[in-house]
Design a protein that fits this description.
The chain is an alpha/beta fold. It is built from 19 helices and 20 strands. Helix 2 crosses helix 8. The structure holds nicotinamide-adenine-dinucleotide (NAD).
Length: 554
């Protein structure tokens, strides 16, 4: 008998009436006999089964890493242009299947098809062409200015070599855009990849593998291993050369600990509690629309969602009224239905987090202005877009990542106060500043503790392939996207050449009194960085040269 266990329990725990069964005994089931367990993926809006995916065991993960390693050398030997051709072929496949992929993303994650198109497919299609065409230039060998050492006939350059096998562990909120972007960058840098998608969205992960396979990517170079946390943990242990992890702070910490034990590096893209500051001179209509989109897009399940909005007290009333009005216009529905602005949340468990944050805020004096509940829906993990005011930093809603469609509004009086409030968080992923005075916007932006600060924009810069993405403080370590992201996927090797090898180095053995005298001179003059100062050492250098020549003769 084969045990077919629904491991996507985060979505289904104690939640919906249509999600009653946690463990299925499935004699004669359709999964392969080698897999003792599989994930059943459900549409969180309807409860319909979307499909099934195997749970990869630690042994299977290790074998995927071995196969990837075997395929990597030949791939790394290809030129950037040759690798780019494969990525562009994969891109063409994505375009061919665009609607089907958007539909799958919508059904597996609950988001509207429109969001799957604009927030997942459009950015990745752009990212694919960008890295396919530009990686050669972005990873070109670099000559390093080595200052006075160059006067001694030496030169240094940095060349970028692939790491080997990169393990990518990804979340469910952008199940296509996050892993696909990292897969493309890792492949273009010459690596093989083993991808572990979220247990809530395994089919989207498998689709990424399929797209590359049909584009002619060599066998084994990209493996998709589906499963829950244990499969991710197995990937960290399986002998990869780096882990690119995106997910929660708690899991990120576990991944970092395991990676440290293996002495492998990891990039951690973690949670956020992103602030939006609206100054009194902001374009109010644009700021209100941005706040609503920034807080409710993807049902608020974006690491860069607007999770705290600080509004200058002079415009707070007008701004709040407009935000509430705009929120009322949003249509919440099953993501695959036309016209849906907000879909279901991806899991019942995540909705419970949202509900507990709202409950805590209400208990401490907050006020719900619109939304606040499930909207009377019996089925599906829906949470209404919710606007809350009268909040303060004692509330969980203002301190911890809510990751749901809730927009808390708080007022401020001065620029200093706004900055202090925005920075009063353990997180630092993105932030935004709204003002017509761009100089003020940039001044404030530089004082905000975040990996990305936008002036008169929200949320969307993960979609820009050219710019780095990553957080400060608990929001993570390292970067993805842009040149900084590519540099995470290569090893920088320093090549140092001495073209005057005939002149033996003055600091080599033996350490005679004359040598020590010269070294004192180096300490005083060479280290000033001034060639003029160093030139004053010439007599002592010549004496040392002749001393060393004497040594060579004897
Ligand atoms: P999660 O941490 O629960 O899971 C992320 C991935 O890690 C999943 O694939 C999961 O199976 C895997 N995993 C779980 N335990 C593991 C372990 N011990 N070892 C290795 N892998 C393990 O996160 P989630 O709920 O899927 O995603 C939501 C979180 O992700 C939010 O906090 C959100 O802010 C964050 N996020 C951050 C970014 C960013 O770019 N900074 C982007 C998207 C999401």
């Amino acid at each position: 008998m084969i045990i077919c266990r629904n491991l996507a329990k985060a979505r289904h725990d104690d939640a919906e009436n249509f999600m009653a069964t946690q463990i299925h005994e499935a004699a004669g089931a359709r999964e392969q006999a080698t897999h003792m367990a599989e994930i059943i993926s459900y549409d969180p809006a309807t409860g319909a089964e979307v499909g099934r995916a195997p749970v990869a065991t630690a042994g299977e993960v290790a074998r995927a890493v071995e196969r990837a390693r075997a395929a990597q050398a030949a791939w790394a030997a290809l030129s950037y242009a040759e690798r780019g051709h494969v990525v562009l072929r994969a891109r063409a496949r994505v375009l061919d299947e665009m609607d089907a992929i958007a539909n799958l993303i919508s059904r597996e994650s609950g988001k509207p098809v429109a969001e799957a198109l604009m927030m997942e497919l459009v950015p990745t299609l752009d990212l694919m062409q960008f890295f396919a065409r530009r990686t050669a230039r972005l990873l070109k060998a670099e000559q390093i200015n080595i200052g006075q050492y160059a006067l001694m006939g030496r030169s240094s350059r940095i060349v970028y070599k692939p790491l080997g096998v990169v393990g990518i562990i990804s979340p469910w909120n952008f199940p296509w855009a996050i892993p696909l972007g990292e897969v493309v960058m890792a492949l273009m840098a010459g690596n093989a990849v083993v991808l572990k998608p979220s247990e809530l969205t395994p089919l989207v992960g498998l689709k990424i593998g399929e797209v590359f396979q049909s584009a002619g990517l060599p066998d084994g170079l990209l493996a998709v291993v589906t499963g829950e946390g244990a499969t991710g943990a197995a990937l960290v242990e399986a002998g990869v050369d780096k882990i690119m992890f995106t997910g929660s702070v708690a899991t990120g910490r576990r991944v970092a600990e395991a990676a440290a034990r293996k002495l492998i590096p990891c990039v951690l893209e973690l949670g956020g509690k992103d602030p939006m500051i609206v100054f009194e001179d902001a374009n109010l209509e644009a700021a209100a629309q941005a706040a609503v989109w920034g807080a409710f897009a993807n049902a608020g399940q974006a690491c860069a969602s607007v999770e705290r909005c600080y509004v200058h007290e002079r415009i707070a009333e007008e701004f709040t009224a407009r935000v509430v009005e705009l929120t009322r216009t949003l249509k919440q529905d099953v993501g695959t239905r036309e016209g849906a602005d907000i879909g279901a949340m991806s899991s019942a468990r995540q909705r419970e987090v949202v509900e507990s944050h709202v409950r805590d805020a209400l208990g401490r004096g907050a006020r719900v202005l619109v939304g606040g509940g499930r909207g009377g829906r019996e089925k599906g993990s829906f949470h209404e877009p919710t606007v809350v005011d009268k909040v303060d930093h004692s509330m969980v809603l203002m301190r911890e990542e809510t990751f749901g469609p809730v927009l808390p509004l708080m007022t401020f009086r001065t620029e200093e106060e706004a900055i202090a409030r925005a920075n009063d968080s353990p997180y630092g992923l993105t932030a935004s500043v709204w003002t017509r005075d761009i100089r003020r916007g940039e001044r404030v932006a530089e004082r905000l503790e975040a990996g990305t600060v936008m002036v008169n924009e929200v949320l969307y810069t993960h979609g820009i392939a050219q710019t780095p993405w990553g957080g400060v403080k608990s929001s993570g370590i390292g970067r993805t996207h842009g040149r900084q992201g590519l540099l995470e996927l290569v090893s920088a090797r320093h090549i140092h050449v001495n073209r005057l090898a005939r002149l033996h180095d003055l600091w080599w053995f033996n350490y005679t009194p004359r040598a020590a005298e010269l070294f004192r001179g180096f300490a005083r003059r060479f280290t000033t960085g001034s060639p003029l100062q160093t030139s004053l050492l010439l007599p002592r250098m010549l004496r040392r040269f002749s001393e060393r020549r004497g040594k060579k003769r004897h």
